[in-house]
Structure formats: C-alpha cells, structure tokens
Amino acid sequence: SIISCLNNTEENLVDIMTLAHSWSLSRLVSMCEQKIAKEVEDEAKSGSLSKLSIDVVGLLLTAQDMGLEQLEKFCKHFLSVNYEEMKKRKEWSLVKGENLEYVEKNRYPPLSYIKEYQEYEKEKARRENVVEKAQGNGG
Asked: Quick one: three-class SS letters along 82-131?
C-alpha cells in the first residue's frame, strides 16, 4: 500500500515525493511532506543537530524547486529555530538570498536577545569586579 511505502527512509520519501509531484498526485505529495517533516523532527530529538543525517537545506531547496509550500515552510522554520546548530553544517553555505534573510530574521535566539545577554554579562562582570575591589580595600 502507499502508506507502507511512506515508512521508508527520508531519501526514499524524497524520491517518492518527487515522482508523485511529477505525476500530479497532490495527496501523496502532501503525505510525503508530512512524513519527511516528522522524520526530521524525530531525528532532531534523538541527537545533535550538527550531526543530523537529513539535509534540511537540501530539502528546502527541493521543496522550493517543486513549489511545495508545506515542506518549504517547515524547513525554513526548522532552520530558524535551530539556527546556531544548523549554521555549523557544511550545507549552510547553500542558504542564500531570500532564504537567508528569512532564517536570519526569524532565528532563535534572536540577535536582540544575544546582544542584551552580552550586555548583561559585561555589566555583571563589572559589578563583580567592583565588589571584589571594595572587599579587598575594606577588608
């Protein structure tokens, strides 16, 4: 059955999805998109994102080439919320143009948070230094 075919690896699912797309089998394409997204999520939960065996950037580009909005949105979201780990991967260099703009705009943690945290750490270190000096002089 078609459903049993969807219990394959991500590579096979992409092949099935590509064929389904070329034959205009939109329901099968949608099922493949959902199953691929689940595969990515499941693998991401089980280990380091920098060692993920699934190429999410490649999936994004494939989805865009085929006009698959559901998979495209998932990939962009995944890359955005896992920004720090995903940018360490070799295929990150393929994230360009509008994709890079989207991912950087929606990244987690946002740059504003990182900047505020760095300022907090600087102020904390400065205050600790002041306290240490005061204790050294008074004590």
From this structure: CHHHHCCCHHHHHCCHHHHHHHHHCCCCCHHHHHHHHHHHHHHHHHHHHH
Cβ neighbours for 82, distance < 8 A, ≥ 6 positions apart: 44, 49, 108
Contacts of 109 (CB under 8 A, 6+ apart): 83, 84
Q: Name the residue with tokens 């698959």.
A: 68
Handedness of CA 127, 132, 137, 139 (dihedral sign): positive
Helix (H, G, I), strand (E, B) or coil at 58: helix
Dihedral sign for Cα 106, 108, 113, 114, please: negative
Place of tokens 């059955």: 1
Q: Is the pLDDT of residue 132 over 70?
A: yes
pLDDT at 4 over 70: no
